[in-house]
Design a protein that fits this description.
Family: Belongs to the helicase family. PriA subfamily.
Strand content: 15-25%
Protein name: Replication restart protein PriA
Largest sheet: 7 strands, parallel
EC number: 5.6.2.4
Number of domains: 7
Helix content: 25-40%
Radius of gyration: 30 Å
Mean pLDDT: 87
Catalytic activity: Couples ATP hydrolysis with the unwinding of duplex DNA by translocating in the 3'-5' direction; ATP + H2O = ADP + phosphate + H(+)
Distance between the termini: 52 Å
Shape: globular
Bound molecules: adenosine-5'-triphosphate, zinc ion
Oligomer: single chain
CATH superfamily of the largest domain: P-loop containing nucleotide triphosphate hydrolases
Organism: Metabacillus halosaccharovorans
Length: about 800
């Protein structure tokens, strides 16, 4: 008898371990760890992951596995290890860790389909399977399962003749394209052409086209386009039996119809050569090191990545490149596709569930060797990893803000250790944590001090907006900014205007009584969206219509405050009516592909000014951009977050880096109400080193990372008294169980004290060494387990909190 240990999909403390099941006879040969199964669990049947198979079990009276969901493991042995580690590291349930590593398609409802890998495969199929594929190349798994044992199907999958795929039940998603196929030989076609009535010109056109070009099968859309006939003509040919219709599954590659200009490795300059040498040596010798490539904007970091990857692929290994979601622009993707073509899979949240699954399958089937993607691409199921690159290492989006609360950088280092390969972290403004490690030689520091071709960094002017106001300028643009924008317009150069929206929204306030409209469920003001005159809550999604009068005092003087991009655009049109403006924000980029269209319009110089939010801060590389304006530099400075200054510094540096990247020199204007703030001052001088020193001393005196580690416990419940008493108990328990060296802050209300009608309290542990902290935190969860499942209590623990919100 064989047994399987299974982690079941019941996310709770009591079930957060593996359970043993019997493996039915017919599946014993092929059931391997990493496959998903359905098992009886109490009165129900649940999904689970097989984590181990074995010949004996210490338990008796075991139930048997009811169903196998995979015929190929969806998690490699290494990823299973990563899952266990994630559980330890982030205190999440094992099942959450495993599920986080799979594409969404495999968590949704789906049908299982078995398909032939190619037309020739049918000849090699087992006798029992052949009949299913005589007429079609895709068969529902349910049909086959009834007659053919799974191990026979699995054998043909292993041999590469069949593939099992999951088809997500999705509405309106196109995953097949309509094709027409010739239903006779070319000789027969020639006969038919002679026989056709010469009045049927359109039919003749189609038939002749197919014959002369030797085409047997073609997408309908293409055929219609080249022959200029209508669908009705094809229908006639189909009804005559000359053509047959067929739907063919295609990879939903969103970049498929773009052509990539092939690029070649550029000769590296001196600094680049010095930076790449140790990386290449690690690749050659299969050594695990973490490199920090600290290079100013435009210093050619990406070129170094590309050539390092080339070495990895030449070595027969695979690579993962993480880039922040918002800089995963077509421009960025093109740089990788241009160099590595079809060896690249791209994973980002703009793809549909099906598209993501297609890209993931390319990795699993070893059809690609390189993945470029956002955070979750770190779980790409490569088995022969040769390098992991994290571009813009400092980006906060690398941390997942829901369970499992992991940081992609930690996962990268863990995986790279396993594969004995290098990790390259790149940034012009590394996080203090990372830079501190590089200073201590835990990470190897590689420095690119100069821009490519010794181009100078753009010069930065800080404009004090309070001065502007005093001298009578009440608009949102300083005199200097307007002057420079006008100058660029005259010279036919381009400008980028950046509006820092984070932590700053357009709220609605009554000018008479000062009443601010708040979300009825959360203690936060609603954000005004001009589109549809709606007020929205960014935390719970609540929406309401903009009122005409103040709900408090009935005054009509109720207005929205704050500067949305739309407002800026309107104001800008007033002062510079002749400028062509492209606005990029959530409203203009909501539709799929819109982002890309707007950027390529700007790239083609169909506009003079690109106006946008965070979205335009990164990765953009346009040769004619010579001016960058930051409208309000300080909106983020005042967030209740110890990283607020660091984030401001990073953002200002990134934005400034968009100007003067090619032949033309660049200029930057930073408008601010707090010009004396050191992060603004030092960003304007590109002085990361001084910023690092200054910020480190503050972190030290306030006991924040990187000097201390943090653990944040957040408690929420619909009743405030409950929240307070639970948080209080937690704090007391922590005090009894951590060392004197550690500091415990709280209980206090969270910076947003109520979300979605739930009150929120928190406490924080600051510690240097605390061997038993995980253990202690686990005990807390265990203690409240009962109330968490029955009494609507929620406790979340974040062991690397990014924000304090
Ligand atoms: N060795 C080289 N010779 C000539 N041009 C180069 C070289 N390396 C990079 N470049 C070019 O210089 C420009 C800036 O390089 P790249 O985008 O790689 O810099 P980066 O450091 O990644 O920038 P950022 O972090 O600001 O996005 C690009 O247009 C790139 O093609
Ligand atoms: Zn009022
Ligand atoms: Zn709300």
């Amino acid at each position: 008898m064989k047994y399987a240990s299974v982690i079941v999909d019941v996310p709770a403390m009591q079930t957060d371990r593996s359970f043993d099941y019997k493996i039915p006879e017919e599946w014993q040969d092929f059931l391997t760890p990493g496959m998903r199964v359905i098992v009886p669990f109490g009165p129900r049947k649940v999904q689970g992951f097989v984590v181990e198979t074995k010949n004996s079990s210490e338990f008796d009276r075991l139930k048997a596995i009811s169903e196998c969901l995979d015929l190929t493991p969806c998690l490699t042995p290494e990823l299973l290890k990563v899952g266990h580690w994630l559980t330890e590291k982030t205190l999440c349930f094992k099942i959450s860790a495993f599920q986080a590593m799979l594409p969404a398609a495999m968590k949704a409802k789906y049908e299982k389909i078995v398909t032939l890998t190619s037309d020739q495969s049918i000849e090699h199929l087992s006798d029992q399977l052949q009949p299913f594929f005589n007429k079609k190349n895709q068969v529902d798994m349910k049909e086959i399962e009834q007659d053919v044992p799974l191990r026979i199907i699995q054998k043909d999958i292993k041999n590469g003749y069949l593939e099992l795929i999951y088809k997500v039940k999705q509405k309106g998603k196109k995953k097949k394209i309509r094709m027409v196929k010739l239903n006779c030989s070319f000789d027969q076609l020639a006969e038919k052409i002679k026989a056709v009535n010469s009045n049927a010109k359109k039919q003749l056109t189609v038939m002749t086209y197919l014959k002369e070009n030797g085409i047997r099968i073609i997408p309908v859309a293409d055929l219609l386009a080249v022959t200029n006939v209508s669908d009705a003509t094809l229908k006639t040919l189909i009804s005559k039996g000359i053509l047959v219709e067929e739907y063919k599954e295609v990879y939903r590659d969103p970049y498929q119809d773009r052509l990539f200009e092939k690029t070649k490795a550029l000769p590296l300059n001196n600094e680049q050569q010095q930076a790449i040498a140790p990386i290449l040596s690690a690749v050659e010798n299969d050594e695990h090191h973490v490199f920090l490539m600290y290079g100013v904007t435009g210093s050619g970091k990406t070129e170094v990545y590309l050539q390092s990857i080339e070495a990895v692929l030449n070595n027969g290994k695979e690579a993962i490149v993480l880039v922040p979601e918002i800089s995963l622009t077509p421009q960025m993707v093109n740089r990788f596709k241009g160099r590595f073509g079809s060896k690249v899979a791209v994973l980002h949240s703009g793809l549909s569930t099906g598209e993501k699954y297609d890209e993931w399958r390319k990795i699993q089937r070893k059809e690609v060797q390189l993945v470029v993607g956002a955070r979750s691409a770190i779980f790409a199921p490569f088995e022969n990893l040769g390098m992991i690159i994290i571009d813009e290492e400092h980006e906060s989006s690398y941390k997942q803000e829901e369970n499992p609360r992991y940081h992609a950088r930690d996962v990268a280092i863990y995986r790279a250790e396993f594969h004995q390969c290098p990790v390259v972290l790149g940034s012009a403004t590394p996080t203090l944590e990372t830079f501190a490690r590089a200073q201590k030689d835990v990470y190897k520091l590689l420095t690119l001090k100069e821009r490519v071709n010794k181009r100078s960094m753009p010069s930065v002017d800080i404009i004090d907006m309070r001065e502007e106001l005093r001298s009578g300028n009440r608009s949102m643009f300083s005199t200097a900014l307007i002057e420079k924008l006008t100058d660029r317009l005259e010279k036919n150069e381009q400008s980028v205007l950046f509006l820092n929206k984070r932590g700053y929204s357009s709220f609605v306030m009554c000018r008479d009584c000062g009443f601010v409209i708040q979300c009825p469920h959360c203690d936060i003001s609603l954000t005004y969206h001009r589109f549809g005159q709606q007020l929205k809550c960014h935390y719970c999604g609540h929406e309401e219509h903009m009122p005409n009068v103040c709900p408090e005092c009935q005054s009509e003087h109720i207005r929205f405050f704050g500067t949305g991009t739309q407002r800026v655009e309107e104001e800008l049109v007033k002062v510079m009516p002749e400028a062509r403006i492209i606005r990029m924000d959530v409203d203009t980029t909501g539709r799929k592909g819109a982002h890309e269209k707007l950027l390529s319009k700007f790239g083609n110089k169909e506009a003079d000014i690109l106006l946008g939010t965070q979205m335009i801060a990164k990765g953009l590389d346009f040769p004619d951009v010579t001016l960058v304006g930051v409208l309000t530099a300080d909106t983020m400075l005042h967030l209740p977050d110890f990283r607020a200054t660091e984030k401001t510094f990073q953002l200002l540096t990134q934005v400034s880096g968009r100007a003067g990247r090619h032949e033309l020199p660049g200029e930057v204007i930073i408008q601010t109400y707090t010009p004396e703030n050191y992060s603004i001052q030092l960003a304007s001088k590109y002085d990361y080193d001084a910023f690092y020193e200054h910020e480190m001393s503050l972190r030290k005196s306030h006991a924040y990372p990187p000097y201390y580690f943090l653990a944040l416990v957040t408690v929420s419940h619909p009743e405030i008294t409950k929240v307070v008493s639970v948080t209080d108990k937690i704090v007391q328990f922590l005090r009894r169980n951590v060392s004197n060296e550690s500091k415990i802050l709280g209980p206090v209300a969270s910076p947003i004290p109520r979300i979605n009608d739930r009150y929120r309290y928190q406490c924080m542990v600051k510690y240097k060494r605390e061997k038993n902290l995980h253990e202690t935190l686990r005990k807390i969860i265990e203690h409240f387990q009962q109330e968490m499942s029955s009494n609507d209590l929620m406790i979340t623990i974040d062991l690397s909190p990014n924000t304090m919100m």
